[in-house]
Amino acid sequence: MGETTAEALSCQEVVELVTSYLEGALGREEHARFEEHLASCGPCRVYLEQIRQTIALTGRVTLEELSPATERDLIQAFHSLKR
Predict the structure, then answer these.
(1) What is the rounded CA–CA span in Å between residue 79 and residue 30?
(2) How far, in Å, CA of 45 to CA of 19, rounded?
């Protein structure tokens, strides 16, 4: 990653800021640092796209449409993320 006058973001920081980025809630400098990191980090670009897709899909699926097995799998997946 190329160096700028501001300290570069780490992948962990990008993960922590992704929701604020998508909501347009980052300040100008932090937004620029976020995009600079994305420009040189393929895995973070993939992660961002996965979050965008997740947000898009969650607006289309209702609880009634989920099978009990799918609901259980999703709950387990979210609990795994916390660990």
Answers:
(1) 29
(2) 14
Q: H or E segment at 46?
A: helix 42-58
What is the CATH code of the structural domain delimited by 11-82? 1.10.10
Residue for token pair 């994305």: 38
**Residue ranges per domain, the chain?**
11-82
Per-residue pLDDT of the chain (83 residues; tens, 9 = 90+): 444 446 889 999 999 999 999 999 999 999 999 999 999 999 999 999 999 988 887 777 777 888 889 888 888 887 776 65
pTM of the model: 0.63
